[in-house]
From TrEMBL:
Identification of the protein by name: fructose-bisphosphate aldolase
E.C. code: 4.1.2.13
Pathways per UniProt: Carbohydrate degradation; glycolysis; D-glyceraldehyde 3-phosphate and glycerone phosphate from D-glucose: step 4/4
Entry-linked CDD domains: FBP_aldolase_I_a
Record family assignment: Belongs to the class I fructose-bisphosphate aldolase family.
Keywords: Glycolysis, Lyase
Domain of life assignment: Eukaryota
Keyword Lyase set for record: yes
Pfam families (alphabetical): Glycolytic
Length: 377
């Protein structure tokens, strides 16, 4: 009997040891680098310049100022952004389109090297865009998982150190269970693949501004999609210390008559984040989603009026570039003043990240709305 008890105790000990082995924290090849990169991007007073528009979308921007959509004109505009002196004081990372990752300045410097000289971490858009999701009410799913591991490895060799994948959630068109699940699972698979290639994944299930819904409905949908996304990221063993999030702010829909000021947007957005986002995540880098330059900066500033468990900052495209593009007008002689406009917007959002933004310094152009229904990136 005593022998049987000893054997039983021995088996239990072996079983417990095996169980402990099975839950050992992952130790991936790039873990330390991923954590360092994520914390560099999520550094005090700095945020992300999103300049990863597709060639077609960049063409629309150029067309708005009467400039032809050619590779050289796209390169010239992106050189203006990448080489702005002093930009690294306010910008910690820049998301690039694949074409831009391999481009160079007029004097032959790689864009990635120009950014690194300013202490700006190069990032890369890795998804392949949105397509209709079958058997839904006009919802979308995001392509790009096929071959993603090989693309990420090549992007790492080219100097990229973080990645972005944008999926969307539409409130007017759903969101259906299948669309939300596809969005969350796709983001989780992408995040795991990116981390295994040394790239910090920016996780972006964008709840679109389209619709007449109120702020409470937006909160409900945001909480649901982030719960689903974190569930699948945990299942895929994504290391939360080596990711960044790019959520939409919790706001009423663009066509909702009941608008919300910065204090209410901050209250609802931070409520959602505290309910869903582990403090292990280093940074929350908000998208502007068609808000005006002024509105997006005011909302960010309101969120930083109290301490937060994460770095709460920005990853803006139009909200940083709108005035810059209009100032440039495709003319070489306008580059210095356009770069000054970029620095002004970057500093405004840097101040907002610190909770010290002063809107009295803004001009009328900053309040111009940029919302586009059904916006395609």
């Amino acid at each position: 009997m005593a022998l049987m008890m000893k054997q039983s105790a021995g088996l239990k000990a072996v079983s417990a040891a095996r169980s402990r082995k099975s839950v050992v924290v992952r130790a991936g090849k790039y873990d330390e680098e991923l954590i360092k990169t994520a914390n560099t991007v999520a550094s005090k007073g700095r945020g992300i310049l999103a300049m990863d528009e597709s060639n077609a979308t960049c063409g629309k921007r150029l067309d708005s100022i009467g400039v032809e959509n050619t590779e050289e004109n796209r390169r010239a505009y992106r050189e203006l952004l990448c080489t702005t002196p002093g930009l690294g004081q306010f910008i910690s990372g820049a998301i690039l389109f694949e074409e831009t990752l391999y481009q160079s300045t007029k004097d032959g410097r790689k864009f990635v090297d120009a950014m690194k000289a300013e202490n700006i971490v190069p990032g890369i858009k890795v998804d392949k865009g949105l397509v209709p999701l079958a058997n839904t009410n006009g919802e979308s799913w995001c392509m790009g998982l096929d071959g993603l591991d090989k693309r990420c490895a090549e992007y790492y060799k080219a100097g990229a150190r973080f990645a972005k994948w944008r999926s969307v959630v539409s409130i007017p068109h759903g969101p259906s269970i299948i669309a939300a699940r596809d969005c969350a699972y796709g983001l989780a698979r992408y995040a795991a693949i990116a981390q295994n290639a040394g790239l910090v994944p920016i996780v972006e299930p964008e709840v679109l501004l389209d619709g007449e819904h109120d702020i409470d409905r937006c909160l409900e949908v945001q909480e649901a999609i982030w719960a689903e996304t974190f569930k699948y990221m945990a299942d895929n063993k994504v290391m939360f210390e080596g990711i960044l999030l790019k959520p939409a702010m919790v706001t009423p829909g663009a066509d909702c008559p009941n608008r919300a000021g910065p204090a209410k947007v901050a209250e609802y957005t931070l409520k959602m984040l505290r309910r869903r986002v582990p403090p292990a995540v280093p940074g929350i880098m908000f998208l502007s989603g068609g808000q005006s330059e002024l509105e997006s900066t005011l909302n960010l500033n309101a969120m930083n009026q109290q301490p937060n468990p994460w770095h709460v900052s920005f990853s803006y495209a139009r909200a940083l570039q709108n005035t810059v593009l209009k100032t440039w007008q495709g003319k070489a002689e306008n580059v210095p003043v356009a770069q000054a406009a970029l620095l002004k917007r970057a500093k405004a959002n840097s101040d907002a990240q610190l909770g010290k933004y002063d809107p009295t310094t803004e001009g009328k152009e900053a309040a111009q709305g940029m919302y586009e229904k059904g916006y395609v990136y």
